[in-house]
Task: structure prediction
Amino acid sequence: MKKVVSLISLCYLVVMKLLLLSKTVIAEPRAKTVLVTCGNVREHNSTIFVPNFVATMEKISDEMRKTGFGTAVVGTGPDTNYGLAQCYGDLSLLDCVLCYAEARTVLPQCYPYNSGRIFLDGCFMRAGNYSFFNEYTGPGDKAVCGNTTKKNSSFQAAAKQAVLRAVQDAPNNKGYARGNVAVAGTTNQSVYVLADCWRTLDQRSCKACLENAYFSLQGCLPWSEGRALHTGCFMRYSDTDFLNKEQENGSSRGNVVVIVVAVVSSVIVSVVGVAIGVYIWKQRYIQKKRRGSNDAEKLAKSLQNKSLNFKYSTLDKATESFHENNKLGQGGFGTVYKGVLADGREIAIKRLYFNNRHRAADFYNEVNIISSVEHKNLLYMTDKNKGKELNWEKRFEIIIGTAEGLVYLHENSKTKIIHRDIKASNILLDAKFRAKIADFGLARSFQEDKSHISTAIAGTLGYMAPEYLAHGQLTEKADVYSFGVLLLEMVTGRQNNRSIVSEYSDSLVTVAWKHFQAGTAEQLFDPNIELQEDNNSEVKDEILRVVHIGLLCTQEVPSLRPIMSKTLKMLTKKEENLIAPSNPPFLDESTMELHDTSADPFYPLNAADSVATMSHSSFYPRPMTLKVAHQASDVFLFRMHTYEEILIQMSNLVMGSKQCILYSSIL
Result:
């Protein structure tokens, strides 16, 4: 009987807690980044700075969960790290934690500089190497204005009134004010405003900051929205109600309690069922989490068994403390730096700071995939010939090299591997313009006894096969489709799905199909391809054949697409007969006629960019883009083939070690 009473009491408490929590999560964490600014002074010592910064964020995180505000100071001397974070007054604590979580993942992008600040629509965070807690003005103060809609004089008058009222009210309300003012002459239009000072400021400094913010926002009118991003405060006005709802008063809470007491007996059974379900889910989640952790540990140990150890100071010296002058580029996992070891070997280092579990999983997946392959077309290469235009001969060599690499992944490796992100930005070139497949962060191994893998959608729009995009069913034919898109880009010098006419304009695949059907495929040729008089006809036929093969690879039905070995054979053996391709996906039969192409519906490839860039797949090589991960002071490296290139993988998964691990692969 006591157990029954205890269970009933527990159910009552659960119901009460759930209802109270429902009031805690008010609406929207507003975690959209508005502005990130970084200092111009480099950190003093990276081996000290990074752990201090991480510790500062952790301390602030504890305070944010309690009060929505936090400060922290970690370290001594020039390596001291000061941090401040605050959520705006209308955010609930749970929404605040979500906003802060976003801020702390973005601000580390300022590294290697020792200071920075980030304004989000729901919170603010700042870090630096001196105590700035009492500052309320600075040279970086500015306003960010919405530039989509201009408003009339009535709106402007209401906006000034709303902002001025917030300036007057906030200093007397612990630095926070919110409200709205109706626009004269309208029935349902208002101006909404929020003002918030950092809690480290006194009343006088808060008022001074908001007054400065008021004058900054005057410059945003007549636009419908404006944000003042100042050293000591934040202010925003808008014609849209962006404010989270305020919690109800005590009387309403009393009514809720009465209702709960009245209905609690009728929901006890439901709550017990929910509790049991939650318990079972939690147990499964814990087991799954442990399995994932064990898998990561096993992989790390297996890598460590293959490694040689290097001190972090060696890598720091090789890159001159990751100096900006040694920066080669930016990629999905971080920044690439060039370095030189003591024996003269050049290295490429890429770092991602303060990783999360999702990125860590991708990192380990990439390490595992790369470690299991051995092929001349699966290398990361540094290119020093930036600016050399690619003629058709070189483009065709790139096509063949890419195809050979995919044949190996799909058919000749120990385990079938689906790359899942074949695109121009992941095909890198060495000094001799040889193609190297890069970026295995999304790659997946494939068991022979399965027809497909069902997985979460990941990749690049415009390159993803329709069956994978729609249903998450992944086979090697998804790579074939991406390769087909790449073929058409190599021929046309245009990037797929880059329209400047309309968001509904045809994709490159559709345009190529229409020209192929109309017998006008030559109009697709990139003007930069120079056809020499002596072999004009032969080269033209080869290019037309590549277009044909590209359309075979991008057919809507996966079973109709050729496998990569067949594709390679069609590319290299001209006597191989080509069947007629069927429709590509997303083709509107009512628009089969070709439109006037005098206004090119695609962005032409920019000659200043490279085959390895994501925004413009131009045919100019560039320095490598390497996928790695960094978390504090542990570094993983790969020795790559005879070129002795080194891909440095930095990981923060183990915080205690001060050493770097060099992995020798069989590439």
Observations:
- The two ends are 69 Å apart (CA to CA).
- The chain has four domains: 33-128, 143-238, 283-382+623-667, 386-604.
